[in-house]
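Methods — Computational structure assignment.
A single polypeptide chain was analysed. Its primary sequence is given first, followed by the predicted tertiary structure written as structure tokens.
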Amino acid sequence: MSAAAASRRGLALAGVILGAWALSLSLALFFYPLHGWALLGAPLIMALHSWLFVGLFIVAHDCMHGSLAPGRPRLNEAVGRLCLFLYAGFEWRKAYTNHHAHHRGPGGDTDPDFHASSRFWPWYRSFLLRYFSWRNVAFVASVLTGLVALGAPLANVILFWALPAIASSAQLFAFGTYLPHRREETGFPDAHNARSNAWPELASLFTCYHFGYHHEHHLHPGAPWWRLPEVRRGRLHA
């Protein structure tokens, strides 16, 4: 696939993720009734929004590697900044620097995403404290206040925006950091200190946009999320 074709497909998929996130969130926040039979659908909407929040970060992650739109660094940065801001007011430069430090020394002393403990909660706590600052707290508080001021019921804001955003951080951490990089008795296949799950592609997509194929990502960081199954099947070698 040419760089131009990869760019068109990557941008189209990013547009679908961003559009679905914005439309679904708007409808749920302002129009979804939290009473009667509609309550049964609330958990499904929350799960969908968590997955779409994950999608925002995955698009930003591809932008960090320049793989959203190959050969167009300014476009990658612009889209990445937008996605991180929409996610939780995250700062592009900090995320970019930390992520590339992770790739230079995964699982080592210079890896900002690594934690010496192999337990989930201490590592997740460290993960949150590293990336979630008072600036993000202020962003979340401002958005919550603004949505309520615009007429969104507080319960809808909490259920369909706040809780899915928190859940998505745990989802990203579990499938994109903890499971691939925790130390186990079997060790790692190479110096990338990363492993992949063996799940079917549909399960891989719905857990973390194929980011669970993590060893493949470290071997081919220039491959966007939607090409990781190709890498795993051995059909993409660069």
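Note: The two ends are 11 Å apart (CA to CA).
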